[in-house]
Design a protein that fits this description.
PilZ domain-containing protein, 6-stranded antiparallel barrel, PilZ_domain, 6 strands, Thrombin, subunit H
């Protein structure tokens, strides 16, 4: 049984994984919350509780650079990495913007799928 402290939002945003300020992997945010996220990636050279950095861009914001967050590894499996933001200094506004973007992306995809089914 899962015991989540905050609701997860499905994702689909590309992300870069950094270790010691060096890019080491690419991935895709599969789901995220204010407390952490799961990154779909084949990168496995990590250990539990290791701190990593994550970089991403919002596609519609061409005037802005990338955003970064720090996280520590709490889970690994064949499909990716589970990371937690708890106890690490991060900009809460960036996390909130990321969650809002993923929610918007998810609801837009749901609406598009619903419209396609209605037209069939």
């Amino acid at each position: 049984m899962e015991h989540r402290l905050s609701q997860r939002v499905e994702g689909g945003l590309p992300i870069l994984v950094y270790k010691r300020r060096m890019p080491v992997a690419t991935g895709m945010i599969r789901d995220a919350s204010r407390r952490g996220m799961f990154i779909a990636t084949d990168y496995a050279d990590v250990r539990l509780n290791q701190t990593i950095e994550l970089a991403f861009r919002f596609p519609e914001r061409t005037d802005q650079g990338h955003y970064t967050l720090s996280a520590h590894i709490v889970r690994t499996d064949d499909s990716g990495l589970g990371v937690d933001f708890d106890g690490i200094e991060n900009n809460a506004l960036i996390i909130s913007e990321l969650i809002a973007f993923l929610q918007q992306q998810s609801s837009t995809a749901f609406a598009a799928g619903y419209r396609r089914r209605q037209m069939s």
